[in-house]
Design a protein that fits this description.
The structure is a homodimer of 340-residue chains.
Chain A (H helix, E strand, L loop, with lengths): L6 E7 L12 E7 L8 E9 L3 H5 L20 E8 L9 E4 L6 E4 L5 E2 L15 H14 L6 E4 L7 H11 L2 E6 L2 H10 L4 E4 L5 H8 L4 E5 L4 H7 L3 E9 L18 H11 L2 E4 L2 H5 L3 H14 L6 E5 L4 H9 L6 E5 L1
Parallel strand pairs in A: 8-9, 8-11, 9-10, 11-12, 12-13, 14-15
Antiparallel strand pairs in A: 1-2, 3-4, 3-6, 3-15, 4-5, 5-7
Helix pairs in contact in A: 2-3, 2-9, 5-6
Chain lengths: 340, 340
């Protein structure tokens, strides 16, 4: 259903997925546009960010954040415009970054809003200059600690986070090898983003191709995927390698443990023998206070064209569930945003 | 065979173990006592340290250090006395820390020797004031980063490393829970070393006992064991927990992966979800330059009786293989040294 005057479309969680989400798990509601109270603003969503972490919020397994409740609006970062303001710091027409979720309109008391200054394109606040870019920067710099001449391997290399990780690695002077799904993504990563190499995990023989692409082994692996990509990476890790664990999209729809043998002890032994550092992180919780440290260099790199980006823009809020389900299968190409 | 005048007994690696080492893997040779050349000293071994890492050196699987060659003297740290010196910095009678290995006499060019000052007991240079104490200190302080009020769990709690880890944890103000093998070791850890609790992994129901002993979850787990101890720890880890991976003695004699399901992805997912930091380390390679930082406070704690220690002294070099094999099964009680 298209956007209509006077109606607030909301996409709510109808049921919790078992394994892959399906369209049954989402429901589109029509509700009245809410009225802002004293100290509130009414926001209209312009762009909604779709990100892999949302799969976790659909589940009620223990996690770092409370799950979305059944019947509640799906969470998500947005670029929104202030429609009416009863808040002293905002006025109608202001563009802001918000967490308005999967809906046309939302109220805010201003605390979760970041004014968008003179950004080249407002949707960048959801990508390279927003949470995905910040994730790439801090995970690589703080946990990965890259040095010139080291080999950096990046999973999901054409994605919103991976593409930025690899480009920062090149600026630092690393040999950067990407892994992506499909020939066109690999071509883009290598030719347009300037990675040294990019391997297609849809093809055969990833372990051998990766070994050839990393003749000096792997010093940093930025983990976004897990599964078979991790299986190919693990035997190539160098002593003292660093592994920022940012995501495991290959496992998000998994409902049971894979068959044995049990390799957990093998991983522990590898951590010991190679003196690995493996560290998980959640960008806003672990690094929220360090946003300015990221924003200044990244804006400059984007302005100079040293960090490129690609958006995959889907038109219409009603398309969000389909686009989100596709993302979990790797169907998007670049940062996925919904133009609402 | 007992020590005899004019003979250098050497214990060499006769064959590589498959699984548990046996007495067949060792051979005792009698060789002439070597003569020091210009700039060398002749050392007589007083104490030989036996440590779990030696199991790794008996194997030719890829590791951080070259394996002991077949027919070569087993490696090991020693407290030795200079018998004759042709080196300007040492004189007959000096006590030194060395890596003379499993033999009565050895030559050295002086580079691997550390003079022992006024140490309360020379064998402490192999324990609380030497490599095991240093391992405990740096692994806990640098990777574990303990804070007062946090819960620290220590595997192999009565051992040379674990006993020191837990006592430092108490000095810092942590709740410290040890895990050890057998009632007498647990009594010692709790009553004599002052841990808050110590659980016997030989008994039934370790997962439940550990849960009761850690009502606020686990913030730091000092990993020395792996296997079933790790299985009990993993579900209790708190968000942002730190896991220095120092050893995995339960796995050292393993010859194949255990049966499934495959929990490697489960561990990766736990690292991500809880934002864990897991890090392996090898004390001399990673922290060798920071020895003074450890030595000063540790000497003081030992002098003040705030860090206690226990030695398990075996008499006679010929007993070393048996004592070493017993240690891998947890038969020792305290830091295992051979009085040669």
């Amino acid at each position: 259903m298209r956007k209509e005057t006077g109606i607030n479309r909301q996409i709510v969680l109808a049921s919790r997925p078992k394994g892959k989400p399906t369209s049954e798990n989402f429901k589109l509601l029509e509700t009245p546009i809410p009225e802002p109270k004293e100290s509130q603003v009414l926001l209209e969503t312009l762009y909604l960010s779709l990100d892999p972490y949302m799969r976790g919020r659909m589940s009620d397994a223990p996690s770092y954040a409370a799950p979305v409740g059944l019947g509640e609006v799906m969470v998500g970062a947005t670029v929104s415009r202030v429609v009416t303001s009863r808040h002293p710091k905002f006025k109608a027409g202001d563009l802001v970054m918000s967490y308005a979720g999967w809906q046309d309109y939302a109220l805010s008391d201003g605390r979760d809003l970041t004014p968008l200054g003179d950004m080249p394109r407002p949707s960048l606040a959801l990508g390279v200059l927003g949470m995905p870019g910040f994730t790439a920067y801090m995970g690589l710099m703080d946990i990965g600690q890259p040095k010139a001449g080291e080999t950096l391997v990046v999973a999901a290399a054409s994605g919103a986070v991976g593409s930025v990780v690899g480009q920062i690695g090149k600026i630092i002077g690393c040999r950067v090898v990407g892994i992506a799904g499909g020939k066109e993504k690999c071509r883009y990563v290598k030719e347009e983003l300037g990675f040294d190499e990019c391997l297609d995990h849809h093809g055969e023989g990833l372990p051998e191709l990766l070994r050839e692409a990393c003749p000096k082994g792997i010093d940093i692996y930025f983990e976004n995927v897990g599964g078979k990509v991790w299986d190919a990476v693990m035997p190539l890790l160098n002593t003292k390698a660093r592994i920022p664990v940012c995501g495991l999209i290959a496992d998000y729809n998994r409902t049971s443990l894979p068959e044995g043998p049990d390799r957990m002890g093998l991983l522990m032994g590898t951590i010991l023998r190679l003196r690995l550092r493996m560290q998980g992180f959640i960008i806003n919780m672990d690094y929220g206070h360090r946003f300015p440290e990221f924003r200044q260099p990244m804006e400059q790199w984007v302005r100079e064209g040293r960090v490129k980006f690609r958006e995959d823009v889907v038109e219409g809020l009603e398309k969000a569930p389909e686009a989100f389900m596709g993302m979990l299968e790797g169907a998007n190409f670049g940062k996925l945003v919904v133009k609402v």
